[in-house]
């Protein structure tokens, strides 16, 4: 309960921060976008999302928290646009209950207008499991977001048993191969079979495909051989505070 009221105040007290992990195109070794990951600066501690997102979801605080993240990502995109000519998108993780809200598109419109960035400055990640669980209530948002130019990426892909038939009807632009398959690449034949299948599926649907959780050169090489050149992971960079992302930002122009 104490944590809950502290989290409640965290937004107004300006205790939340976004860290950013670059998405890399290994063909050029350049950043092609970044994923925003929330942290809570509590006293001199930096609390990772695993320790407060579940509570936020239970208590409903996830709604103002997510809106804060969207607004902050739009602001950051503008700052990087001005300082570095940044024109890629920042991916924000949203739980399905946000996609179920009919005012999601209006909120995003408000934030990007406020900061004067295009809608495509914001990309949204929804987990495959979340998507499939509430498919019917999430679909209207996906279409409306797609219409205004906000791209949707399916996070943790390969873990959620989604129906191929459904996927082809959804206005999504990217799938992120789940870290668990990437981890076992070059170790178990099953993992490379799954990754090969995901890449083939994504290609045939005209989707962009990115591998997350890339930690070793070996994994990177296997992925390249499978014709997947977009990657994210500790091999390239952990999630960084905004000022430390500058090394990558300076390369995007
Ligand atoms: O950064 P870290 O590895 O601790 O993130 C753990 C999990 O928290 C990840 O699954 C990530 O998607 C999720 N997460 C990080 N930031 C946010 C956020 O802003 N909103 C939501 N809903 N989840 C987030
Ligand atoms: O669920 P989601 O994909 O949003 O999770 C993002 C989380 O994954 C972040 O907390 C981030 O710190 C973590 N992460 C990013 N790169 C790597 C990596 O290479 N290895 C591992 N184990 N975790 C990573
Ligand atoms: Mn994610
Ligand atoms: Na993920």
From TrEMBL:
GO terms for molecular function: kinase activity. Residues 1-253 form the EAL domain. It comes from the Bacteria. GO terms for biological process: phosphorelay signal transduction system. Coiled coil: none annotated. Keywords: Kinase, Phosphoprotein, Transferase. This is Histidine kinase. The lineage of its organism: Bacteria, Pseudomonadati, Pseudomonadota, Betaproteobacteria, Burkholderiales. The chain holds residues 462 to 714 of 735 of the full protein.
């Amino acid at each position: 309960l104490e944590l809950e009221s502290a989290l409640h105040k965290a937004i107004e007290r300006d205790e939340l921060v976004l860290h950013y992990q670059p998405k890399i195109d290994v063909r050029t070794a350049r950043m092609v976008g970044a994923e925003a990951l929330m942290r809570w600066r509590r006293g001199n501690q930096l609390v990772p999302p695993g320790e407060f997102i579940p509570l936020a979801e239970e208590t409903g605080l996830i709604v103002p928290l997510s809106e804060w993240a969207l607004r902050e990502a739009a602001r950051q995109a503008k700052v990087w646009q001005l300082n570095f000519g940044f024109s890629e998108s920042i991916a924000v993780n949203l739980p399905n209950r946000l996609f179920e809200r009919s005012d999601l598109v209006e909120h995003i419109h408000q934030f990007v207008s406020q900061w004067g960035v295009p809608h495509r400055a914001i990309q949204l990640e929804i987990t495959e499991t979340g998507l499939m669980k509430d498919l019917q209530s999430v679909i209207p948002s996906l279409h409306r977001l797609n219409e205004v130019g906000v791209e949707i990426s399916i996070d943790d892909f390969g873990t959620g048993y989604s129906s191929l038939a459904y996927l082809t009807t959804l206005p999504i632009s990217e799938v992120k191969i789940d870290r668990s398959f990437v981890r076992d690449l070059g170790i178990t034949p099953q993992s490379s079979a799954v990754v090969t299948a995901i890449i083939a599926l994504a290609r045939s649907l005209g989707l962009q495909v990115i591998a997350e959780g890339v930690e070793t050169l070996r994994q990177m090489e296997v992925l390249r051989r499978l014709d997947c050149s977009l990657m994210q992971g500790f091999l390239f960079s952990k999630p960084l505070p905004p000022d430390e992302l500058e090394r990558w930002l300076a390369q995007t122009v």
